Amino acid sequence: MTTLELTPDARPAVLALNIANPPLNVLTQAVRRDLGDLWLRLRRDRSVRAVVFGSGPRAFCAGADLTEFPLRFAAPVARAHGENAHRMILALVELDTPVIAALRGPCMGGGLELALACSYRMAAASARLALPEVRRGVWPGTGGVVLLERLVGPSRAKRLLYTGETLSAAQALALGLVDEVVEDEQLDARALALAAKIAEQPRASVNTLSELVDRRFRLAFREHLQFELERFVQAYQLPDAREGIEAFFDKRAPVWSTA
């Protein structure tokens, strides 16, 4: 099954990409694996100078496929899922080719973590952004904690992580979570135009700039993921994770453990 849609743009050296898992482009293990493969392949592809990571008609990505969450109550499965997610996000963070996230509709959980790892975030007015994992008794497990803190600072990051609140595109812009907001009908054209402008520049210079801007963060990010993986496995062995997931499927309010 193809989980990604790749569209070489008419403009030279621009690749347009979106997740192809309708209706809301949720992240399955297969989607994560395919994205990781793509980011790694783009490291070696000298023909692509800029990428637009876009949205389907309804959503950029509404987050993880929650039907996979109960599998993580088994520690080996939680570890395998965490490693797959980390492979994907690390390959994106370490990619020197600029990636512009073009966000429409829901951009939640793992979807927002992907957007945070991109070089630039352009949001349509319809975009809604959140890291709601705390409501499920867990937390963002794909590097999102430090990716968020990098953009908005520790205090604002903590508020968003502690509450899981959803932001409008305008609120996200005010916080620095996105870089630009445009009307929905303009999103694709504006993102492609920016990518084309980047692609006109010398590839070696642009890629080196990515290295120079991100070098210190990339080194720290690798270390963070090693620490995060152990906490990720532990999180799904705790009662609150099971309660959060069961409450979601039962369509009721969770009753958290006091332990």
Description:
By secondary structure, this protein is an alpha/beta fold. Helices cover 49% and strands 14% of the residues. It has helices at residues 29-44, 75-93, 110-116, 144-152, 154-163, 169-175, 187-199, 203-235, 239-250, and strands at 4-8, 14-19, 50-53, 99-103, 106-108, 120-124, 128-130, 167-168, 180-182. The protein has a 6-stranded mixed β-sheet, with helices on both faces. It is globular and about 55 Å long. It starts with a strand and ends in a 9-residue tail after the last helix. The mean pLDDT is 95.
Give the rounded overall mean pLDDT.
95
Count every helix, treating DSSP H or I runs of 4 or more residues as helices.
Answer: 9
Strand order of the largest sheet: 1-2-3-4-6-9
Order of helices and strands: EEHEHEEHEEHHEHEHHH
Through-space gap between termini:
43 Å
Radius of gyration, in angstroms, nearest whole number = 18 Å
Beta-strand percent range: 5-15%
Based on secondary structure, the structural category is: alpha/beta
Helix coverage percent: 40-55%
C-alpha geometry: globular
Low-confidence stretches: none
Q: What summary fits the major beta sheet?
A: 6 strands, mixed
How many beta-strand elements?
9
Keyphrases for this structure?
259 residues, alpha/beta, six-stranded mixed sheet, three-stranded mixed sheet, 49% helix
Please give a quick description of this structure:
It is built from nine helices and nine strands. The chain is α/β, with parallel strands linked by helices.
Outline the secondary-structure elements.
Layout (H helix, E strand, L loop, with lengths): L3 E5 L5 E6 L9 H16 L5 E4 L21 H19 L5 E5 L2 E3 L1 H7 L3 E5 L3 E3 L13 H9 L1 H10 L3 E2 H7 L4 E3 L4 H13 L3 H33 L3 H12 L9
Parallel strand pairs: 2-3, 3-4, 4-6, 5-7, 6-9
Antiparallel strand pairs: 1-2, 7-8
Helix pairs in contact: 1-2, 2-8, 3-4, 4-5
